[in-house]
Design goal:
Layout (H helix, E strand, L loop, with lengths): L1 H22 L9 H4 L9 E4 L14 H10 L3 E8 L5 E3 L20 H4 L19 H8 L4 E6 L5 H10 L6 E4 L3 H10 L5 E4 L3 H9 L7 E4 L7 H9 L4 E4 L3 H9 L5 H5 L4 E4 L2 H10 L1
Parallel strand pairs: 1-2, 1-9, 2-4, 4-5, 5-6, 6-7, 7-8, 8-9
Antiparallel strand pairs: 2-3
Length: 290
């Protein structure tokens, strides 16, 4: 009897450990995305992984395997890019061309999905991997209860098709749509008023245009640019209940690498809520250090 109980206990412990490992560090998807992204002074700074990774050898950008790798290491947002094939299949790809990040050639829009699904992804160091170019549909299915996405919709891809896919998969609670001006933001809001929208606000007049277009504050997360932020703009948006994303990717990431990673702390101290970066592990370390 004791042996039997011990065996059962071992199975239970093993199963529990497996469940724990499988879910370690995945982002808790909120019951209300609007509540989750409403500004609160006590809320911890978050990491947004630019292109979902790519700065680690063997892990290409815009790749589900890369998303899985980094999201198991830390709770994070995954920023990824949506392009469309010749036969209107939405896939993840930053460039118009397949050349840089895959074994393919020519523009994405000149290739059918039948061709694209045969290709392999390359990491940012030029190494070919065994990973494939994912569709938006499979990406959203994978991400359910794991991560929150910010979807950068490329010019050749209609917002309507992206919103329809988000609706089809009931992904509105874990997928934000990135826009770059008031016209785009209003188009997304018109398509589905229950979506959270990343809007570009570099100065207060940008907010006013969005407000005049009819976008409620609760539907906005503000991307405030890729330069050192103005504290007065951050404070202005916080008073509206709007969280701020700073793109440290590129120049600010390079400064941190040169000066020391504690450089990121200055943005945290200014109240920036989300740091979009190509160096997610370095940023996450600083967030958790203070």
């Amino acid at each position: 009897m004791i042996k039997k109980l011990s065996f059962i206990l071992l199975i239970f412990v093993g199963f529990s450990c497996k469940m724990s490992q499988n879910n370690i560090n995945y982002t808790t998807v909120p019951s209300s995305i609007f509540d989750y992204f409403k500004y609160q002074d006590s809320k911890k700074t978050m990491v947004s992984v630019h292109r979902g990774g790519g700065e680690l050898k063997g892990f290409p950008e815009n790749c589900i395997e890369s998303f899985d790798y980094i999201s198991k290491k830390m709770p994070c947002l995954i920023e990824c890019d949506v392009e469309m094939t010749k036969d209107s299949v939405m896939v993840l790809m930053h460039d118009k061309s397949l050349d840089r990040t895959s074994t393919g050639r020519d523009w994405v829009v000149n290739n059918t999905f039948e061709t694209i699904k045969q290709l392999k992804l390359k990491d940012n160091f030029g190494n070919t991997t065994n990973f494939k170019i994912p569709t938006l549909e499979n990406t959203l299915k994978w991400g359910k209860n794991k991560v929150i996405f910010t979807l950068d919709v490329k010019k050749s891809t209609p917002f309507k098709k992206v919103v329809e896919m988000v609706d089809k998969l009931n992904a509105g609670n874990y997928a934000l749509i990135i826009t770059y001006n008031a016209k785009e933001a209003f188009e997304v809001y018109r398509l589905n008023s229950n979506l959270l929208i990343s809007v570009s606000i570099l100065q207060t007049s940008d907010y006013e245009r969005l407000h005049e277009a009819g976008i409620p504050d609760k539907n906005m997360v503000a991307f405030i640019g890729t330069r050192e932020p103005k504290t007065e703009l951050v404070d202005f948006l916080h008073k509206k209940g709007i969280m701020c994303i700073l793109g440290v990717l590129g120049n600010l990431d390079k400064k941190a690498a040169a000066r020391g990673d504690e450089y990121y702390k200055s943005f945290i101290d200014q109240g920036v809520n989300i740091l979009a970066t190509d160096r997610p592990e370095a940023v996450n370390k600083i967030i958790n250090k203070f």
